[in-house]
Amino acid sequence: MTKIYVGNLPFSATDASIRAPFGNHGAVEKVSLIDDRGCGRPRGFGFVEMASADAVLATQAPNGTDFEGRTLTVNEAQERSGEGFRSGPQGC
């Protein structure tokens, strides 16, 4: 399974609307749209999980394309090296 980062999403994006462009390249196992922990508003990015064989084309094809008026940034997700320090909610 490969996790794909999808950035520059409009705040109106839904799981179903994200599945469509990636589903053209294989079976989408999971979509996770990230919300701000403090106020619950969308943060404008998310992750798509697909079989590794399908993920290569699914990462390349939508990158730089228009999605609901925004230019998508798509690449293979990188593991986070550490959580670091966080303060409370900001900008909510």
Characterization of this structure:
- The protein has 92 residues and is of the alpha+beta class.
- The protein has a single domain (2-76), classed as Alpha-Beta Plaits, CATH 3.30.70.330.
- Helix content is 20%, strand content 34%.
- It has two helices and six strands; from the N terminus they run E-H-E-E-H-E-E-E.
- The chain has a four-stranded antiparallel beta sheet with strand order 2-3-1-6. The chain has a two-stranded antiparallel ribbon with strand order 4-5.
- The longest helix is centred in the first third of the chain and has 9 residues, at 15-23.
- The mean pLDDT is 87.
Quick structural gist:
This protein is α+β, with helices and mostly antiparallel strands and 92 residues long. The chain has helices at residues 15-23, 52-60; strands at 2-7, 28-35, 42-50, 66-67, 70-71, 73-76.
Note the topology.
Layout: E1 2-7, H1 15-23, E2 28-35, E3 42-50, H2 52-60, E4 66-67, E5 70-71, E6 73-76
Antiparallel strand pairs: 1-3, 1-6, 2-3, 4-5
Which descriptors apply to this entry?
single chain; 92 residues; Alpha-Beta Plaits; 4-stranded antiparallel sheet; two-stranded antiparallel sheet; 20% helix
CATH fold group: Alpha-Beta Plaits
Question: Tell me, what is the CATH class?
Answer: Alpha Beta
The H-level CATH homologous superfamily, spelled out, is RRM (RNA recognition motif) domain
Q: How many domains comprise the coordinates?
A: 1
Count the DSSP helices. Answer: 2
Provide the low-confidence segments as ranges: none
